[in-house]
Structure formats: structure tokens, C-alpha cells
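Chain A, query sequence.
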Amino acid sequence: MNHIRKYILFLSVLFINTHSYAQDVLLKQQLNLPKQEYIVSELFKEINKQTKIEFNYTSDLNFDEKVVLKKQQFSVENCLKQVFDLSSFKIVCLDNKIFIVKIPFEEQMFRISGFIRDAETGENLINASIYNPQTFEGTVSNNFGFFSFYQKKKCPNFKISYVGYEDKEIKFSNVKDTSINIKLQPNNLLREIKVVADDKTNNINHLFLSTYNITETDLKQKSVLGMNDLFRNISYLPGVQTANEASSGLIIRNGSPDQNLILLDDVPVYYQSHLLGLFSIFNPDAIHKARLIKGGFPAQYGGRVSSVLDIRMKDGNQKKIEGEFSIGFLTSQLSVRGPIIKGKTTFNVSVRRSYLDLLTNLLFSLSDSEDLYMSYYFGDLNFKLTHKFSNRDKVYLSTYMGKDLAKQRYIQDLTDNLMEKSRNTIGWGNFTNSIRWNHVYNDKLFGNTTFILSRYTYSIKDRRLYKIDDGDFEENYYREFYSGIRDYTLKSEFDYIPSPKYYFKFGFEGAFHLTKPGSSFYSSKYNTDENEIKDKSINALEVSLYAENQIQWTSKLLTNIGLRASRFALKDKTYLSVEPRLTAQYKLNEHISFNSGFSVMSQYMHLITSSDLSLPTDIWLPVNDKIRPIRSRQYNLGSVWEIQSGLSFESEIYYKKTRNILEFSENYYTSDGASAWDQKVEPGKSWSAGIELMLKKDTGKTKGHLVYTLAKSEVKYKYLNSGKAYASPYDRRHDLSFQISQKLNSKIDFTVNWTYGSGLPVTLATQIVSTVSPYYSDHTESVPMFTKRNDIRMPSYHRLDCSFNFKKNKKHGTRIWNIGVYNAYNRKNPSLLYINQTYDGDGNSTYSLKQLSIFGFIPSISYSYHF
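Chain A, predicted structure.
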């Protein structure tokens, strides 16, 4: 019986495929018509003469209608598309016959496509909702404002909604396939507009659980230290842990910061913070929108295993020059955007610079200090140029340049007649550049092709000079180290919407990685042989293909099914990866929905970390024949409950398992962190699980959210900690935070942020051993040794930040004074713990546990002007 069933199934599949193939062959036959004007009956006879195809049709088709063809050579299918409207008729092929059948009016549909833009600036609006107000079916605009969806002819009107903008309704009198560009008017009162369709349908937003949007409005309302920092806003979301002071990057679902894919206008960014993690590198005035994805990853993203942060810069105002500048406690910034050619070419430029170095220069000069000098500054430049060639073609040029530079100089007396002068410099920075071309192929297909350059470098210089008695300073030691990574990438992605129930995304990406682990130069007066290690580049080619399909199965069930395949090739080794992705959303009723997701992710780049603090001494290195890619599987399940309009409760549980993560060996000790690195690390695995809860209010004068995360994360290495599992460095068990924004009136508003996190685990040395110095062969240095890993917890972390905005409308813009406090009650949060050794008068040593705290109470005041 089973054999009979298999045989019947095989015949059924064979019949379906054969029938589909026969229909395709029939319609793809080529025609060479002798003229361009025909009566429908004459045209059918001509087609029959050339192909022997017989036509059958209903009386609804006007047999005597005259048609004018655009050309004379094309396929049967394309010819028929010019004869009648496929939204009113459909083609059925059987044997060598074509049946033209009238579609009932209740089932007839027409397509609407185009772009959604800001009416005042012309900025593309990302994820704007377009929907039918009667059926509550619709779609959203993509990352470039493009949308396409089907609408039933019996109810042709549709609405557009976007947070912070007035709703707009479009009414059609002529129901046919239409291309339209829609402009939404900003709501100048900054009143959150509730998208009614969000309560009625689940196919409009295209966003699943574990995904959050951060808008330009969000950044304007929430500031710390006078700046609306992106990372600070993200840190209050569920599953995003609050890091220790002086620890940069995002810790998302217990993953390390290097496991986050950070994209700035499609370009990967490798180092993302300034000033020991106090600020991110992303200038808030240049950001249009950002999307954080923690699970259920779409197939279009790859290369990291923990999260995706997709940041989009503003295009620029198409009608007038506008911008803002601000002068704050630590930084100043200026942003200007506007048209070069109105309606066609726009620009957006933002610059930011800190002036800690100027303050330290002043302080040291006033104190007449010649023995000690320190300075630090960072700067950012964002530039974007956009040109519209036509309604179908648009080109973007995006550039980011950022730099941090720290210097130290000091003089000290080593003995009565020997003086040492030391000069240290460390610099690091990103450079990204991308050229993108958008093209609307037709009302169903949208394409985006991008060429990308991304570069990250850092260098260290250490110079020491000695002076004996009254002689001149002479150099006796010099060391220089340089490392970096450079990517050249070509990617092309497409949005294809063939019908109301399907939304395809597919594309490919090719990246050439040029990694320079480190070149160093060392010379010493005590060692006549100069030690130079030249830069040895590691070249790798990464190629990826992906496809995903969002399917509306019923009015309640929506899924996104995707697959990503990648190949990473080095000189002596090639890795292949197949990554299935699945997310699903089920709408129980108008107020409750359930979500689930499954993702497989791969990461071919490892970050070798050599410091507990947020320093750029970490080195990016690719996999090789010994070190395998990081692989991760994540499962998540959650729900959203719309308690009432503007008030919602979200809950989610997740489980994530990762393998091939790296940790330094027990006997690791090196001077630069790069030499023979694959022999000094141990591969292992980790697993983490957690539950995330968020209560959110996003309408009215009082807005905010309360977030709690309970999570656990462990790691295991074969040769570390006696092979036993132990808490991961990012195992923060409890994380609690709230954020409240209160608008007192049109001129005054304030924000209060509070966060709490239980202590992170740390490893402390149990003994000290002596080893030969890497700099002086006749010297020894003390090196710590460890027995148990992460068996001690730091003190808990908590902090309160407050910010007040005082606004006033001026003749040419708006003035804002911001007064804020970082760490209002001056909590001494730990940056790191260490063992301190002291000696008494008899030379006996005692040990004590010490804590290093960096950022305490920091008041701030800033002035900004929006014009």
C-alpha cells in the first residue's frame, strides 16, 4: 500500500510539473507580427497562424476592440498582456489551447506601487504602513521608502500611516495598476499617531518579535550628557544588557560585542564607541532610523551570530537648507542638509568633535606642569549625497570617518642622575564608504546594488628617552604596532512582490577581506638588533546568497521563511555554511499575538580581546585551518498583548547555543596579542537562555517603558577550568530598567532613566609567577596565574540619569537648553576588580581586593539650535 501511495504522489507531482512546463512553453513562443495595429479577432488569427494556438474566451472580452502594439516581436504572453487587463482576466492553458476567463469583480485586484516620503524634506520614510481601511490588509515601505501591494477593485481606497506624521487616505476613481509617490505631512506637535491597522491585522508591520525600531523622534526625546546617543537608547531595551563602566559595545542576549552586526547604510562597522564606551560613534543628528534585531533574523543578514543593528542615515532636505548645531559639556556638533538641485540632488553632512584635549591643554599650561601631560579627543564626520535620475533610478554616496587619539607624556627621575622621558600615543578609527543604486524594474520588482569599502585601523607608539646628569635626552627604547582590517564588498538585493500574499527578498553578497593582524617595530639601546615584524596580510573571499519569502497564509498567520548560504575561502581552507531562518506570527485576536523564531547564524571573523577595559587593542582575525567559524542556533517564543490603545505588554523566552567561541589558554602571555594567536586560544561552546518582559506606553504626554530580563549564560572549554562549565563573562542574571519621558508643556520636557544589573563574573589571579620580559632579555616580569574561571561576581551595577529640555521657538528655528546629570547619586560602579599587594615595614606583603570605578557623578549642560 505504501508503494502505491508513493507512486500516486509521484504521478501527481509529475503531472503538475509537466502541466506547468507545458503552459510555460506555450506562452513563451515568439511572435513576429507584420504590423502594429490589430482588431482583437485579427490578432488572435495571426497568433494561431504562427503558433497553431487556439483561443477560447468569454463574451466579456471585446472581440472587435482595436489594439496598438508597442513593438512587433515578443512572446505570446507579453502580446496578450497588451491586449487585455490581467487584473480583470486570467489566462488558462490546456493542451494547445488558451482560455481567457473573466475574473468576478469581487475578486479583481489592481496593484499600487511607489514611494512614501516626508512632505517637507522629501526624506524616504522607512516602514510606513500602507493598508486598506476596510479589509485591513496592506504592506510597509522598505529601507528606501518603496512599497508595492495589491488592492481589491471593489474597495479601492487605502491609507498611509507613520509614527509622527498625519494619516493620509488616497481615493481612486480609476481602478487600474497605478504608480504613485505619496507625501506625508509631519505632525509638528510630535504627537504619536496610533496606526489603527496594527490592531486589526498582522501583515502590515512586517516586524516580528525581537525587533525594535529606533526613530529620529526617539533620539530627540532621550538624551544623556547633552547628546541623544543611539547606544544609550538601545541599552534600555529587553535583552540588551547594561555593561560595566568603560566597557563599550552592546551585550545582547549574553553575546559578546563582536558578535553584533552593526551596519551604517549597509556598511559593516568594526569599532563602535568613543571615550571608554561613554558615547557611540554614531552622530545622532545624522541618523534617520535604526532597527535592532535580536532573534528570528531575516536571511538578508549574516556574518554575526548575536544581533543586527541596521542604521540608516538621513538623505537630506529636497526643498531647503536645514540643520542643527549644539555645544555641550564634552562635545560640539553641527549638522546641515539640503538641496543641491531641488527635487533631484540633496546632501547631508554632520561633524562632531570632543574637546577634552583642549581642556587638558589649558589645565596643564595653567599648572606649568612639565612632568606630566595627557590628552584625548574623538571626532566624527558623516556625509551623504543623493541624486534622483528619474522616478525609477536613484544613487546614494555615503561616507563616515571617525578617529580617536590619546596621548601621554611624562618625565620622571629614575635615580639621582638618571631621568626618563616617555611619550605614548594610541590612535584608532573607522572609514566607511558606499555607493548605492536603487532601481525600480517594474511595479513588482525593486533592486538595490551597493559597492562598499570599510576600514578599521589602530596604531600604538611608545617612545622612551634617557638623560644622564645635565646631558641631552637620548632615545633608548622605541616600539610601534599597527593593525587593521579592510573590506571590499559588492552586494545586490531585490524586493519582489508577485501577489498580495507573498513578499520575496533575495540577493547575493561578495566581500574581499584584507586583514592585517599586526606589524611591529622595536628598537632598544640595550639591544643592538632591531626587531621588526612586517605586516603579513590575510586575504579571504566571502560569498553569500540568500532568499526569503514572507507569506500571509490566513488573516491570522504570517510567516517568513528564509535560507542563507555562504562560502568563506582562504588560501588553504574553505568553509561552507547553510543557514535556515524561520519566523512566524499568529494573531489570536485584535489585541493578542504570538510569535516564534528559529535562526542559524555563522561568523567567520574572531575578535581577540586582551583587556577588560574598552580599549582598541583588540584584534580582528579571520578563521583559518585550525580555528573554525562561530556557529549559533537560536530559538525564541513570545507574545504581544495590546492592553489598551498605546499600552502594551511584551514577553519572550529564548534559548541560544553557540560553538567555536574562543578564549585565551591558561598559559597565554604575549606582548601584542597577534603573534601565533591560533596557538594561544581554546575553542569552546556556550549556551544561554532567558526571559524578557517589557511594559510600554507610547502615547500621551507621559511615555516610557519598564523592562526586566532574567538570563543565564555558561561556557565550556576542554582545557580550561578543568573542562567544567562556568559562567560566561556576560552572564548578567538580572537586568532591570525603566525610562520615563514627561512633556510638561510645549516648552519643557524631561527624561528619567534608571538601570540595574546584577554583577558580572570575573576571574582573579590566585598566584603570581615570574617570566622573562618580552622587551629586556635580562629582566623578569610578574605574570598572574588563574585556577578557577569567573568564580567571583562584581558588585551590582545601577545608575540614574536625568535630562531636562527647555525649548523656545525663535524667528528662524528652535532653541533648546539641555541640563542633565549622568549617575545622579554618584554610584561607584565597577569597571574592573584587581588584587592589590602592599608591604609593611618588615617587607611582609598583604593582599586586598580593589575596585576601579571611572565614571561617577557627571553634570552636563548643552545648547542646541535647530534651523
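The chain has three domains: 2-103, 108-206, 230-866. The helical segments are 2-27, 40-51, 76-83, 216-221, 230-234, 356-366.
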